[in-house]
């Protein structure tokens, strides 16, 4: 236990707030023999959260520094001892006593001073020692009601940043100390503003298709650790291929969705990891040989995902016919229930809504979904020359449990290459 002699003031490491219990001394700003004034910064300490400059609440001569730089001290440990300043030449002890009374007792709130301008700092060497004096513990001065003696610099800064007058707060800490929670409660009281509650909301029952979609998407977000990767592609070649197919047989319509479906089927043959599902109960990956291709269709009853069974067995023309047939059944509400389940991969052409890109949610329990944005004219570099091309964005959301980014990127790159150069598909015919 550190004791002080009569007329000495022992200042201990104060509570620095934030629930911190110790601090390390970084640098002393004063030395033994220096004269300090009330609220003069005497040491810089570092806590687990910040560096803090600590002022001393006493004026006088530095008698002892109780720890060296680099030492870790607990809150409440002895920090610095300050004694009465040596009288100036020709100054009597009585005059010095009156000067100290005018300067203040030192029992003040750190950082607020006593109301007097601080005296200039002077460096004086000690002319004597009190080491042999009988140790006497100084009694703590009386505490005025609701007047804190010492406050953490961090708490003081928090109050200043939020415009809080700490002298108006009722301290909750021991010995009348204002704590961080006192300031935070004041900040919360100032921030409270009445927010009117909305009156008379329209309640819409979540049922039917909308409820089924909501349940499936919620389950997808809950169970599947999904990731999304995307790429911009030049779709000029794909549009040219579409025109060529339709021109070969007048009256036959092959939409872009059919071409994209054909490309996806070919991509899944190269990267079967994405034609999968995860059995969470048995902790197994189910990899399918058949490609049952789902595609998003917007109807008056909401979004539905019809499924083209055995899409890998169909030609591009047959894919186009099946997509058109299922889309019409979905719009009229005549789609059989077995055509809304059992998909292994989904294609979503949200470009029809005029948007460029998205991070689509995987259709549970599948492992991947390809999204296609709108096709627009954009500047593009072809063979080193800047030109205008038909550009779209492809987004692939995939279940990171079934494959890594390399596999997903490989699939997406294959799809992008086929969109830009449809002749690549001939290799799989």
From TrEMBL:
> What's a single GO MF annotation on this record?
acetyltransferase activity
Basic and acidic residues composition-biased segments: 93-103
Q: Where in this protein does the record put region Disordered? A: 87-148
Q: What is this protein identified as?
A: Dihydrolipoamide acetyltransferase component of pyruvate dehydrogenase complex
The residues covered by the Lipoyl-binding domain are 8-83
> Has the keyword Nucleotide-binding been applied to this entry?
no
Q: What is its EC number?
A: 2.3.1.-
Task: Specify whether Iron is a keyword of the entry.
Answer: no
Of which family is this protein a member?
Answer: Belongs to the 2-oxoacid dehydrogenase family.
GO terms for cellular component: cytoplasm
Q: Where is the Peripheral subunit-binding (PSBD) domain?
A: 150-187
InterPro entries given in the database record:
2-oxoA_DH_lipoyl-BS (IPR003016), 2-oxoacid_DH_actylTfrase (IPR001078), 2-oxoacid_DH_E2_comp (IPR050743), Biotin_lipoyl (IPR000089), CAT-like_dom_sf (IPR023213), E3-bd_dom_sf (IPR036625), PSBD (IPR004167), Single_hybrid_motif (IPR011053)
Cofactor(s) recorded for this entry are: (R)-lipoate
Q: Which Pfam families does the annotation name?
A: 2-oxoacid_dh (PF00198), Biotin_lipoyl (PF00364), E3_binding (PF02817)
Q: Enumerate the CDD domains for this protein.
A: lipoyl_domain
Which keywords does this chain's UniProt record carry? Answer: Acyltransferase, Lipoyl, Transferase
Q: What is the lineage of its organism?
A: Bacteria, Bacillati, Actinomycetota, Actinomycetes, Kitasatosporales
């Amino acid at each position: 236990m550190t004791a002080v002699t009569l007329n000495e003031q022992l200042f201990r490491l104060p509570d620095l707030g934030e629930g911190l219990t110790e601090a390390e001394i970084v640098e002393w700003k004063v030395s033994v023999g220096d004269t300090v004034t009330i609220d003069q910064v005497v040491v810089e300490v570092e806590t687990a959260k910040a560096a803090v400059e600590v002022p001393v609440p006493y004026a006088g001569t530095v008698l002892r520094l109780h720890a060296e730089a680099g030492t870790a001290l607990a809150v409440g440990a002895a920090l610095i001892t300050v004694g009465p300043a040596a009288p100036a030449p020709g100054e009597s002890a009585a005059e010095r006593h009156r000067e100290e009374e005018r300067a203040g007792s030192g029992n003040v709130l750190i950082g607020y001073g006593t109301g007097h301008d601080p005296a200039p700092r002077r460096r004086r060497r000690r002319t004597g020692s009190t080491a042999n004096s009988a140790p006497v513990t100084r009694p703590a001065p009386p505490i005025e009601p609701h007047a804190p003696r010492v406050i953490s610099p961090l708490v003081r800064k928090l109050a200043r940043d939020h415009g809080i007058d700490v002298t108006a707060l009722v301290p909750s800490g021991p010995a009348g100390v204002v704590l961080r929670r006192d300031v935070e409660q004041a900040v919360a009281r100032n921030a409270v503003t009445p927010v009117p509650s909305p009156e008379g909301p329209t309640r819409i029952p979540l049922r039917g298709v909308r409820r089924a979609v909501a349940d499936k998407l919620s389950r997808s977000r809950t169970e599947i650790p999904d990731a999304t990767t995307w790429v911009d592609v030049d779709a000029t070649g794909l549009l040219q291929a579409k025109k060529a197919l339709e021109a070969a047989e007048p009256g036959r319509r092959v939409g872009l969705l059919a071409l994209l479906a054909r490309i996806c089927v070919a991509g899944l043959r190269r990267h079967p990891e994405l034609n999968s599902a995860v059995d969470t109960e048995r902790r197994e990956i189910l990899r399918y040989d058949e490609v049952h291709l789902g595609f998003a269709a917007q109807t008056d009853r909401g979004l539905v995902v019809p499924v083209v069974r055995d899409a890998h067995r169909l030609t591009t023309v047959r894919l186009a016919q099946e997509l058109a047939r299922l889309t019409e059944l979905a719009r009229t509400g005549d789609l059989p229930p077995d055509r809304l389940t059992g998909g292994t991969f989904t294609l979503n052409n949200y470009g029809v809504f005029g948007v460029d890109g998205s991070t689509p949610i995987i259709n549970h329990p599948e492992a991947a979904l390809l999204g296609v944005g709108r096709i627009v004219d954009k500047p593009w570099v072809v063979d080193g020359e800047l030109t205008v091309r038909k550009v779209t964005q492809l987004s692939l959301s995939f279940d990171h449990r079934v494959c890594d980014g390399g596999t997903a990127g490989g699939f997406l790159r294959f799809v992008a290459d086929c969109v830009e150069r449809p002749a690549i598909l001939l290799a799989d015919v």
